[in-house]
């Protein structure tokens, strides 16, 4: 009879020890697994924040300009009435977006003419998120300028400070604020790339002269927004870009503020801008070419309009001789004592006068200087 207390065979005792140690190791693994897992796990704590320090001076300047000017910049959404050919119903469809800025404390908003051209309704959106229906006060297609008016009952945004454009220099920093692609109050920066540029007008209109060229990113929707200098003053209105793709290529054009400051008050007062004329045709490139060997500067009279002030004053245009050579006409060198070198000089002077004003032209004719009085007339047609 077997003794139940008899020792187990050695092989069975070894198997028991294996099972016992397996249980012990498994239990220890279960107990120590969280500890090991935490030891192997990468740190998930937030890192310490490095001290930023003060912003750079140019950053602070840019921030200050944006915070000062952006409340005065508006976005403009236009729509047009269309009539369904079948139902004859009239509906309004979205037409486009643009930018503008507050001109004065009376609620006048300045933008580009092409932003509102052909629109039946314009809605002006402020930085605060409020929107207002606008009425058209006046427009000047040849300057691509228009004035709207909104009625803001309280907390009206302040006007943008006005600067000058006659003393601008290539290389100056500029800042553009606008509504590109509907992204309102977008800031872009750059420098003045060139001055006194000329581009074709909208819809076969007259050329727009004396523009500022900059490389600040200007895109569709920026039109009508302000171009600002480093003092936070308005120096131009962003009006066009040169781009093969339709997006910014770093070549933007702005109407200079001196022109804006001449035209806008007349639009507010009269609803239109009538630039008085003397009735001549001239071209800067032709003038330079014809005068290359003459040793003189000025605006060469190429044509004189029939019945114009210039014709009544006896001005002589350039003409072609029988042998094909060009006989120089009168050369306008000054008006009221102010030197005339380019057509933009003449345009700026005429815009500062009224119809009926008398001006004195200093002309170079046949090697001699002569004063000629001209009475400015209203444009016709």
Features:
Thrombin, subunit H; Pdz3 Domain; six-stranded antiparallel β-barrel; 381 residues; elongated; alpha+beta; 3 domains
Report on the structure:
This protein has 381 residues and is an alpha+beta fold. It has three domains: 66-149, Trypsin-like serine proteases (Thrombin, subunit H, Beta Barrel); 173-270, Thrombin, subunit H (Beta Barrel); 280-375, PDZ domain (Pdz3 Domain, Roll). Helices cover 22% and strands 33% of the residues. The chain is built from seven helices and 21 strands. The chain has helices at residues 10-40, 57-69, 113-116, 257-270, 284-290, 309-312, 343-351; strands at residues 73-83, 90-102, 108-111, 121-125, 131-140, 145-149, 173-178, 186-199, 208-214, 226-228, 234-241, 252-256, 280-281, 299-300, 303-304, 319-320, 326-327, 331-335, 338-339, 358-365, 368-375. Strands 1-2-3-6-5-4 form a six-stranded antiparallel barrel. It has a six-stranded antiparallel barrel with strand order 7-8-9-12-11-10. Strands 14, 18, 19, 20 and 21 form a five-stranded antiparallel β-sheet that branches. A hairpin with a 6-residue loop joins strand 1 (73-83) and strand 2. The mean pLDDT is 85.
